[in-house]
Amino acid sequence: MLGIIGAMDEEVAKIKEHMTETTIEKIAGMEFHKGILEGKDVVTVRSGIGKVNAGICTQILIDHFGVNAVINTGIAGSLRGDIKIGDIVLSTDTVQHDMDASGFGYSYGQIPRLDTLSFPADEKLIDLAEKCCREVNPHINVFRGRVVSGDQFVSEQTKKDTIANIFEGFCTEMEGAAIGQVAYLNKIPYLVIRAISDNADDTAGIDYDTFEKQAIENSAKLMIAMTAAYEG
Ligand code: ADE
């Protein structure tokens, strides 16, 4: 069983439309849509925005639905000049950019007393996503790199520069590293797929409104194609 998480309704709408035999269960205010997508058993859910929602949602997918992999699909702000609006980033790993225990000597992003700074994504899922992306989204570029997450919509150049420099992230969003942390602690493979909606700078708000729909289209299309090719 594959768990598919999107933070917002818009990010999972198309995926839910493609599902059949759907039954819905509501837990912690989240609607879990269990059914068949491209012949595979999946649970698709809108987690809500931010790290806490994403963490709760992932743990429910694991404990209650018994998923054996989790994929997060959605949009993000680019942290690099070569990653353009519409392009897709596949997480090699994820880091929480707003975790700061530097006062105790920890690196930025390091969760105190946890044995890792970043949460590595599953290499087989990355390979599969890249292959599928080239097939279904041939007009865009697909990147493999670090996804950074925080409970912040990044929309200032200075903030973006700080995050980009410290964490060497490819894109920034608000859930991926929480999903990564829960997957890591439960020893479950996971992947974050993010299409770029904005450049996480002073123009982010305007770009987001303009390009959100197209970016979601790209990531949802990939998610559906990837499910078809997924072997469990
Ligand atoms: N999701 C899409 N764009 C984002 C941004 N600039 N910051 C955080 N999350 C985002």
Automatic annotation (TrEMBL):
GO terms for biological process: L-methionine salvage from methylthioadenosine; L-methionine salvage from S-adenosylmethionine; nucleoside catabolic process. The keyword Transcription does not apply. One of its GO terms (molecular function) is adenosylhomocysteine nucleosidase activity. Pathway: Amino-acid biosynthesis; L-methionine biosynthesis via salvage pathway; S-methyl-5-thio-alpha-D-ribose 1-phosphate from S-methyl-5'-thioadenosine (hydrolase route): step 1/2. Residues 2-226 form the Nucleoside phosphorylase domain. The keyword Hydrolase applies. It comes from [Clostridium] aminophilum. This is adenosylhomocysteine nucleosidase. One of its GO terms (cellular component) is cytosol. PANTHER family: 5'-METHYLTHIOADENOSINE/S-ADENOSYLHOMOCYSTEINE NUCLEOSIDASE, 5'-METHYLTHIOADENOSINE_S-ADENOSYLHOMOCYSTEINE NUCLEOSIDASE. It comes from the Bacteria. Its EC number is 3.2.2.9. InterPro entries: MTA_SAH_Nsdase (IPR010049), Nucleoside_phosphorylase_d (IPR000845), Nucleoside_phosphorylase_sf (IPR035994). Gene3D superfamilies: Nucleoside phosphorylase domain.
